[in-house]
Amino acid sequence: xxxxxxxxxxxxxxxxxxxxxxxxxxxxxxWSLRDAQREFRDGFPFLRRIKSPLATAFVAxxxxxxxxxxxxxxxALVKRAHAQALPQVGERLEQSExxxxxxxxxxxxxxxxPLTRASVLKGFESEMxxxxxxxxxxILRRELEKLLAEKLKSVLGxxxxxxxxxxxxxxxxxxxxxxxxxxxxxxxxLQLRYHHVVLARDHVPISPPIISIMSWMGIGEAxxxxxxxxxxxDAVDCLADLCSHFLNALPEILEGLYPxxxxxxx
Length: 266
Hints:
Order of helices and strands: HHHHHHEEEEHEH
Largest sheet: 5 strands, antiparallel
Number of strands: 5
Oligomer: single chain
Radius of gyration: 20 Å
Helix content: 55-70%
């Protein structure tokens, strides 16, 4: 249980950082829109590397759409994902965009269902192993852990620690006066997933609780499933590139923001 004094400190820190948080989230929305437009324009170079039913279904669906509809869907998805930031930048989700999103949910469900079934079946088969032998899923997990430890050291640094449960790791990266926490989960039903959180001093978050390419694009959770051991290296390379991509963008998003809680207006 958190002591009452400590709880009050947390509440006060969050209150005083709120102007910075709103400004950051407005900037994150604008950057996310530009990045989503890049991904759409270039034929989804990152999403095509993420092995999951949702990423595969999304690319398959959007590739069939007219160019004008693609652009409108891109903007609508990003706006919906960053709804709390829209007042900060003087924008809103238009009625026409809400209608397009309603159609999108129907379209994506049609694409997703057969892919989900195939992924679940493959995942079930991968867990079947001969008696006395480790399952292929445990072999994959060990391979992912080894590759991630090697690859992410040069991207996120060496500050890695177990976090919250089996197969969950946290990396802490320092950016001048800011911090970025990256969480990797290899212990759940999904084979691999990740997200970032950006924090000011005193570990107060200024970002949404989950930042990943599929979340900032408004698609869903960034995760991998249905992989075999031979595909682990490609997944880790993709995840490392995604972490580097966002980490390299952060200085621009944070430029001019001051994280010192004691200097914010009360």
